[in-house]
Write a structure and sequence with these properties.
162 residues, alpha+beta, three-stranded antiparallel sheet, 6 helices, 36% helix
């Protein structure tokens, strides 16, 4: 799905410290800067956003970016991109797309801002890829996850137009 980062876009602080410090009303964990992040308990149970991000990534993104954010011959490894890309840049690239042209190739990341299957889950995707970038979540489907909250379900339905 997203983030053609081969053009070298880097943000000085990258995605920052991913430590979860507070939870919002929809059950989403936030870091000290207020950016979405993951929360994984000592027994390996992942928060709903991380699990949902895994599902959405493998529904929409892995075709180009490879399984588990590892990249492909067609598109870069998002696991690596999230080490240097901050939340705002991530949202911008996913929503608006990107075109990188070099003397040997042209890479095009289409815009997904009008696709509710992506746009409604950008935080989930960011959280999952952020967890992958910091090796907090390994390859494959997380074995255990929190349940989807009622607040998340309500926000999801609203975004999807239900």
């Amino acid at each position: 799905m997203f983030l053609v980062a081969s053009g070298g876009i880097a943000v000085a602080d990258g995605s920052g410290d991913p430590t979860a410090v507070k939870q919002n009303e929809n059950g989403e964990w936030l870091d000290k800067e207020g950016n979405p992040t993951y929360k994984i308990s000592a027994d390996g149970n992942v928060d709903w956003y991380t699990y949902s991000g895994y599902r959405r990534y493998h529904s929409e993104c892995h075709v180009c970016h490879g399984p588990d954010g590892m990249g492909s011959t067609y598109a870069p490894a998002l696991k690596d991109s999230l080490k240097t890309m901050d939340y705002g840049d991530f949202l911008g690239v996913v929503a608006s797309g990107r075109k990188n042209v070099s003397s040997s190739q042209e890479n095009v990341m289409p815009a997904f801002g009008d696709n509710p299957n992506v746009a409604c889950y950008m935080d989930d995707l960011y959280v999952y890829l952020r967890a992958r970038a910091s090796d907090a979540v390994g390859r494959g489907r997380p074995a255990k996850h929190e349940d989807k909250s009622d607040a998340y379900t309500k926000a999801e339905s609203s975004c999807m137009g239900k």
